[in-house]
Design goal:
By secondary structure, the chain is of the alpha+beta class. It folds into 2 domains: about 110 residues, OB fold (Dihydrolipoamide Acetyltransferase, E2P) (Beta Barrel); about 70 residues, Arc Repressor Mutant, subunit A (Orthogonal Bundle). Helices cover about 30% and strands about 35% of the residues. The protein is built from 5 helices and 12 strands. Helix 3 packs across helix 4 and helix 3 packs across helix 5. The longest helix has 25 residues. The two termini are about 20 Å apart.
Length: about 200
Amino acid sequence: MATTQSRLVAVKLDISSVLSSDYREEEGWEPNYLLLGDATKVSRINVIGMVVDRAENACTLDDGTGLLPLRFFEKGLDIPAVGTPVLVIGRPREFNGERFLASEIMKPLASTKWVELRRLELKGRTKTDKKEAAEEGIGNAETLLKLIKDMDKGDGVDSQELVKAAGMSDADSILESLLRDGEIFEVKPGRVKLLG
């Protein structure tokens, strides 16, 4: 019987944290991760920034705290133009001493104000807040993601049924966060589905 591995929650970080954190490589099927200063392990990252350089299957992102190379392993991907604000979810990697993000999802954003909003959001958190939010959010988000997977019969899951089945007081806000972060999407209004 095959085991299924749940998708890890993408933790919101600024680029300076991605570049300055210790990078750890794991053996076998365990994901590589960044070790943050408060000992939090992060294997998937959610960053928002501006595209400042682009090439075939690569670009560079700037969020005002640093420059982060992104690499895309899917051929023929349409990389947004220089100056476009984007939300990116990916996995931290290193090659020949260079830190980069192996991008899984890249979503152009309507306004550069999202970059500033993310900066303010991250600036407002203390280290303890980040760790507690990551631990609590990961647990509740993972529960919702598993419920969506279990309840989806092919055409998505009704949002209200999902919230009811979850039985969490913050299920609505976690659902909104998962939609915003690109973990899930709406197949039609009120019905959600896992991405990928």
